[in-house]
From TrEMBL:
The keyword RNA-binding does not apply. Residues 302-370 form the Transglutaminase-like domain. This is Transglutaminase-like domain-containing protein. The keyword Signal applies. It comes from the Bacteria. Residues 1-22 form the signal peptide. InterPro entries: DUF3857, Papain-like_cys_pep_sf, Transglutaminase-like. It comes from Burkholderia ubonensis. Keywords: Signal. It holds the Pfam family Transglut_core.
Amino acid sequence: MRSGVSAGFAALLCIASAGSNAALQPSDEAPVARRTDMTCRLNRDASKDCTTHEKLTILRPAGRAQLSRLDFDFLDNDRLEIRDAAVIQPDGRRVPLSSKQIDTRTAPNPEAGFHRKRQTSVAFPGLRVGSTITYTLVEHVAATPNATEFHERAVFGPMPVRLDAYRAAFSADRPIAWRGEQLDAFDVETSGQDHRLVVTLKAPRYFNLINEDGTMARRVPRIELTSSLDRQAHFGPFAARYNAILAAPLPAGAAGAVTAARGRPEPERVAALMKHISAHYRYMGDWRMSERGLVPFDLAQVEANGYGDCKDLAVLLAAMLNASGIDARPAFVFRGVDAGPLLVPGLAAPNHAIVRAVVNGETWWLDPTNNVYLPGIIPPDLQERWALVVERNGAVDEDRIAAQAPRVIFDGTYHASVRDDGSARVDLRVDKDGNLLWALMDGDYAQGATAVDRHLCNTWFKEPVDCRIDRPDTSAAGFGRYRIGAHGVDRRALDRTSSGYVYNGGAGWRDKWERLVNYRRNGDVGDLYLGDREESRAEVRLDGVRAEQPLAACSVRSPWFDLDVTPEPDAQGIAYRQRLVQKARWLTHDELTSDAFGRFLDDAQRCTNALRQTVSVASPA
């Protein structure tokens, strides 16, 4: 087992985890087979020395590209050496690599920062199906500065490599505690009064997921090793340093922002300070000083730099909030749509730093690395997870970030005056909130309002002409709903068919249900992330049309979604109210494949399909 990020994780690089697409690939399609034998010594100072023997065999042509070059990154205070690298051809010939085929240089900088990592690349010549590459990796990984405990973790997630053999042996001067989940495919044995631990794969294993959009394999084997299960032992030394930084006077720019915001109500005060940080400090990590580890720059240095990574900006925001009279503490979290349980409260568990603040008696979770901010909104990639909070007394407490409370994110009216040719004069009014408003604000920040307005026109009009968007600047959004007006002509308000016109109501809902039907039909295996619990509602009216059949009311209730279609009585043309409530953030594989969910989909499709109406045009004079 190798720690997935080795010493690089200790720098707290504040990266988000990516999900895995899902649908099982047959084992006989694996492009590469791998055999791994690793031995690691976990040293008293929390550094480690590992020797790993790897053999990778190309099974299919795609494996050639996968293995033609391998890259190994390491910090400048670590050591990495490649030994005995060779290609064994199908006829048994062993071709050692020359020194020209192993190159070490400065590693590329990440997108939002710079560091002093090194990178060793190995190029393997003459590869074909049946070739085996073999090498020995010898590493020394320095301890995270100020760390006193070790924490190693491995996650055996989906990948296009068949694992034929895996053995990882660990030894340490102190007892090794371990925690894991979904480990049926592995044996874990301890000996020597828990000073030695060996992880062994029982049988060859291939787990790769293909051809499924937007799902995640969350139940995968995971094991973590540590010298202590006490979070204070891991984070206590850092908590003391964080509190010392927080106790320092604010630099001039930050102090001026606090003075300007101090008289405002607490929610507005938070918004003002978040906007100050966004305007004056960009998110960029300076990880060249590997001795920093998890310790932020001091406040004056962050202000002098004009940038910082997550821990730098979190400490600055916490200090500013405290100075303004709002209780705020830094917190370590795992950022990503799925955090997983906290098996070991050690340094390898979090990948991000944020702020917990108490605002008008409520707990708010604030991420100053985001470009935009909405008061009281928890970013979706920070909800429903643990948080390790640095308290004033130096304790590191485990808290829980709840899911965002449900809210109405879309409340709109759509009025179309249909013409003889199927076009229509359209007027919309939409109130946005929650994640829809967040996305709008982020789009304005990244692309500009003109690009976002064009996107809105193309979303609400099938073929827009003279579309005009009326809305205030999103930089002032955040308190109350945000209203948008859209006005113009839609040349295809109705779909033309050989027999006349069709009003394609409920198209967005129909796409949603069809995607879930396809999941069941295709035998997919991942869990589906939906986003926040939320409600959307709209009032729709089309004048100048006559439906072939009266629109029927329908309601569907389930643990996952509620939906309602309510026709307006005595309406001329087509007029109805629609409402969709999303009640879950995730749909698990078991839920998606259950009979109950199948019945819900049948009902939801039946209700939604009723909104697709054959109509005749009867424009008023």
